[in-house]
Amino acid sequence: REVVDTGTLNKAYIPMLSNLSPGELQHAEDALQFAKDLVRDWLVRYKFKDWNTHASTGAPVTDEERNRRAREVADQLCDQRRWKTHGRSIRIEDLKKMRVRITDYTEQPDLADAIDRYAALLRMTFDSNIFKVLEDATHQVYRAAANPAIQPGSPAPEQAEKADINVECGKCHSKHVVQIDLRPGLPLQDGRIAYPASNLLKCPRCGNDIDLTEVRRQIELMTKKSVVPRGDE
Fold first, then answer.
1. pLDDT at 155 over 70
2. 2-31 residue pLDDT tens
3. 76-110 burial by CB neighbour count: b if 16+ within 10 A, else e?
4. Do 211 and 200 contact (CB within 8 A), yes or no?
5. Cα(28)–Cα(20) distance, rounded to whole angstroms?
6. CA–CA dist 214, 112 (Å, integer)
7. C-alpha–C-alpha distance, residues 28 and 77, integer Å
8. In Å, what is the CA distance from 168 to each residue of 102, 117, 162, 210?
9. CB neighbours of 79 closer than 8 A, spacing ≥ 6?
10. What is the pLDDT of residues 53-91, one digit of tens each?
11. Number of C-beta neighbours around residue 46 at 10 A
12. Mean pLDDT value across residues 198-202
């Protein structure tokens, strides 16, 4: 953009750009244009679908005006000079400054609760090892592909008699240490939770069921021994 606008390039960019091939630069430009196309298409088809009258003049809104307004919004959202980083969230106030009408859903408690619940499920999908959520009006069950985190200082897998794994609840995010016995008769160490026979650990804090089946499989594969459950405690 700087080269197009001024005909020159800041010398500070040269070392970085020298490591990029023309194909990589074109790929980045294509990705930017694709992002703009997605925004424009969504605005015209959904956000501006029922925009039929100009609020200031009362004149009817044409298809060309919808498309032109969508292009303006897309260009602003894809302007790196404005946002600086991809990690920055775009707030309602930012959109209002761009003259985009926004309904603040937090002012409607029922709608806000429904959206917050759905957003929490999405976060769990992307930020945790949960891959399935089964839910009804009163209960939730989470299916997780948990990876065992064996504590430092544990013996080699083949000689191990037990394993400690760190488990984080996908619902309340409390953390627990589960003791997995690989032979009968071992004492339960302080601060540990016994591995349940059902493979479902009930979170002591919120009662959420945490599926440890994949953890058990991995431990048995690593140690070549069978897990000895203590029962559902």
1. no
2. 677 787 878 887 888 888 888 988 998 899
3. bbeeeeeeeeeeeeeeeebeeeeebeeeeeeeeee
4. yes
5. 11
6. 35
7. 16
8. 36, 19, 20, 9
9. none
10. 998 899 999 999 999 999 999 999 998 888 888 778 888
11. 9
12. 90
120 vs 32 pLDDT, higher one: 32
Tokens of 33: 């244009």
| Residue 69 token pair | 């307004």
Residue 34 scores a pLDDT above 90: yes
Taking only Cα atoms into account, the Rg of the chain, rounded to an integer number of angstroms, comes to 27
Distance separating alpha carbons of residues 230 and 179, to the nearest angstrom: 10
Structure tokens at 160: 């191990």
Maximum separation of any 2 CA atoms in the chain, in Å: 83
167 burial via Cβ count (<10 Å: 0-12, 13-18, 19+): buried
The mean pLDDT of the chain is 83
Q: Do residues 16 and 28 make contact, with C-beta atoms less than 8 angstroms apart?
A: no
